[in-house]
Amino acid sequence: MVNQRVDGGWQACRSDSSGGSNSSGESSKDSSRCSTPLPDSDRGDRLRDKMRRRTESGDRWFSLEFFPPRTASGAVNLISRFDRMGAGGPLFIDVTWHPAGDPGSDKETSSMMIASTAVNYCGLESVLHLTCCNQTKEKITGYLAKAKHLGLKNIMALRGDPIGTDWEEEEEGFNFAVDLVKHIRSEFDDYFDICVAGYPTGHPEADSYEDDLRHLKDKVDAGADFVITQLFFRADTFLKFLDDCRAIGITCPILPGIFPIQGYQSLRQLVKLSKLEVPEDITKVIEPIKDNDAAIRNYGIHLAVEMCSVLLESGNVPGLHFYTLNREVATMEVLRQLGLWLEDPRRPLPWAVSANPKRKVEDVRPIFWASRPKSYIYRTQEWDEFPNGRWGNSSSPAFGELNDYYLFYLKSKSSKEALLQMWGEELKNEQSVFEVFTNYITAQPNQSGHKVMCLPWNDDPLAPETNLLKDQLEKVNRRGVLTINSQPNINGKPSTDPIVGWGPAGGYVFQKAYLEFFTSSENVTALLKVLKKYEPRVNYHIVNVHEQNLTNAADMRPNAVTWGIFPGREIVQPTVVDPVSFMFWKDEAFALWIEQWAKLYEDESPSRMIIKYIHDNYFLVNLVDNDFPLENCLWQVIDDMFELLDAPPELLGTETT
Question: Where is the sequence biased in composition, kind Basic and acidic residues (predicted)?
Fold first, then answer.
């Protein structure tokens, strides 16, 4: 659907090991699509079933590991990285558990919150690491209950590295990962899919390689669903380990842990923490170029591609798990060279799908949040039921308040300094604001030479779909029709269309033209006169921050503006214009002027006063052209409004809104 639509530590290298027994708001492609575009059957399935189905079909796949950041700004950056790396279609991601970082808390840098955000707001199937280290049985149960409440349904059960030099037993706790697996199954039955760690060369604390294999089988027999291995440097190391596991009856999926070498210091730290030995031939290449990060990274990519190719060609390795160290360049390049990075433009639905299991039936949303899907999910997180097939108005539950615009998963990815460069260090008048919107639409540098890559209503550049409307959008924004959401009319495009397509292949998608914008009260007075001659073709809703409210929506009923027809299915209508929910959206849309823009400037400064004036005096308007097979008439509506405004004053009249 639309496009203008209206660090941490080294536990990423498995230092948490298990030892012993163990559009102006116009939305971008990333913000309007599900991070992992999967068939409908995958939306509600558990991870082990997705893994099995992909393996049986011969479809190769990958997964990614991340660690929690140290800072709040790091959390913002990591969520942005989730969106970018999620675009390549990972089957899942996992988030490590760092005991020193308060991992089970509500802090934005905690393992629990990062994993929860990935599931709920980024649409990524996620695995949360959990270790036994320095934890009581009661505390572990509490963490698991919290994870379940947050929508997490996959756990990687690990012993964890000791806080000191040696492992110290915890009274009322667990000493081995197998005990944690048993506890999860005992307390939560089959709710969680459980992953455990495997060691291709044997755990460094195990008595022998064979002994460690037996411990791994114990973990699987206790209820683990799949295994992810510690990293290794040779493909034959993993393939031998896989054969040895199968020989003793371990039949579950075993995923090789892949670590593309990205730098000299990171490799040294890796050797120290994982107690692995780097092969001499690799060391010989790296030592002479140890001060050249780019050269080491390129070498690491080459090694990883070679090793992964051997693994995939063996026929026994359908999936690869990558230790990213929260970086993206090397891993993405390896995946591209392997042909595993697939940015499929098609979306299961025209908006970003949450991976929370309680939302699996959700398939209808108001279009207003198309550019801010994370905000919509946040404001509806307490709903017990989600619209399925049809949007209801008066029966819909109330939207939650959005008072904290600085939650790390809602905050702009850009710094205050960058936003000021884009939106203006100093605003002189309303026209200065018009220019910001226009520069966003045109992707042209502003007077300071900076491109406007985002606006308060959308934190991403324009999407391909918005480019279908670019010329018209530029024209109206220059004259103070400040668009934050739009979509073109579409009449039966294939669902596989790379720009507007969504849903299963073999279908057809449809859209009514939609336009949402802020504009002055003077413009609204003219617009209301013009709209009289376009009824009933055009539906409108016009409101200001003071709740002066005008609409011709019949009986306040919702209006479907996007729908799809697919083989063997009922019609799907994933987005609607709903007058009731528009009033909830209105509060957020107006508040963003103040919360995201005005607060960049000093109190009482001219720049802040200009933004506040717009907030206090402009109207928010949405327009729907119901005759989708015909040419979009909304641009003519706006042209007629401008023509009336340009006419002698007596033609406009004095009626107020």
Answer: 40-54
